[in-house]
Specification:
The structure is a single chain. Helix content is 27%, strand content 26%. The protein has 301 residues and is an alpha/beta fold. The protein has a single domain, classed as Spore Coat Polysaccharide Biosynthesis Protein SpsA, Chain A (Alpha-Beta Complex). α1 crosses α4 and α3 crosses α6. It starts with a strand and ends in a 10-residue tail after the last helix.
Length: 301
């Protein structure tokens, strides 16, 4: 069975100022999601499942299901605030989404076998999809063996503002020991830094590996993650802003010895549209890849 690709596309994109997942950045009007689908198909993924909001269903169907019919198998699920397990209710006044781990859990009805998870607004590169597809296909029967694609921190930053990044703590044999979320990560004349809670700038080594939310899982994630999400809801009943992110689930599972996570270094360069000012750079990068023959000028014709 070929692995499935799950694309997290329910985010609002507050820093970007719009629904950036639908923005056209390719030479022929492609979105970044188009490139992810194109690369995933080439790398050996069998189908794609999108996690979206109900409010963008019509636009999504027109942009992907109808346009790409017959080219790649696509399905979708919804992520909404009211999608909580039986026995739980949405706290009054809650408007924040539940986080990326919740988004992955919503895909369970549409996923069979090993699967990968990516952000819909990040360009990961063909090499990264091939590395992950190879891992998922040769993983065998090790249901508790996961993976994360690791990028060099220097290739993961925006030129237009600070970003949050998951700094990977990797053991000597390549096993992930944990992911530490650092906010306000940016490049300065003195090197790459992040700001701590006191506002101090703390240097980050240029060789550090970061997670850009490209994960490889088996269906055990749904069982483990579902239990952790229930615990999260109980602990945060009065917290209207708490979110459960994938790295938080992974860190807990690693600490408890439930899973092992292989770090998969990639030679690919990441780029994305964290800020609206990033869009021209992304468009230029894609044009260069097209000119170099990495992609056709029009992906789907």
């Amino acid at each position: 069975m070929k692995p499935t690709l799950v694309l997290l596309a329910a985010g609002i994109g507050s820093r970007y100022g719009g629904i950036k997942q639908m923005d056209r950045v390719g030479p022929s009007g492609e979105t970044i999601m188009d490139y992810s689908l194109y690369d995933a198909r080439r790398a050996g993924f069998g189908r794609a499942v999108f996690v979206i909001r109900r409010s963008i269903e019509k636009d999504f169907r027109e942009a992907f299901l109808e346009r790409l019919s017959g080219r790649i198998e696509i399905d979708y699920v919804f992520q909404e605030l009211e999608d909580v397990p039986p026995g739980f209710a949405v706290p009054e006044g809650r408007v924040k989404p539940w986080g990326t781990a919740h988004a992955v859990l919503r895909a369970e009805p549409k996923v069979e076998g090993p699967f990968a998870v990516i952000n819909a607004d990040d360009f990961y590169g063909l090499e990264s999809f091939r590395i992950m597809a190879d891992f998922l296909e040769v993983r065998g029967s090790e249901d508790n063996l996961y993976a994360v694609v690791g990028y060099g921190i220097g290739t993961s930053l925006s030129e237009h503002g600070a970003v949050a990044r998951g700094i990977c703590e990797v053991g000597p044999e390549g096993w992930l020991e944990g992911v530490v979320e650092r906010t306000n990560v940016e490049r300065t004349p003195g090197g790459i830094v992040y700001k701590d809670e006191e506002g101090r700038r703390i240097p980050l080594p240029p060789e550090k590996t970061v997670s850009m939310n490209f994960w490889g899982f088996t269906p055990t994630f749904f069982r483990f993650g579902g239990v952790i999400f229930g615990d999260f809801l109980r602990r945060n009943a009065d917290n209207l802003k708490a979110e459960l992110f994938i790295p938080l689930v992974i860190n807990q599972l690693i600490r408890e010895g439930r899973v092992k996570v292989r770090t998969l270094p990639t030679p690919a360069s990441w780029f994305g549209v964290t800020y609206r000012e990033d869009k021209p750079r992304v468009m230029t990068a894609l044009r260069r890849l097209v000119d170099a023959g990495a992609y056709p000028a029009s992906l789907w014709t």
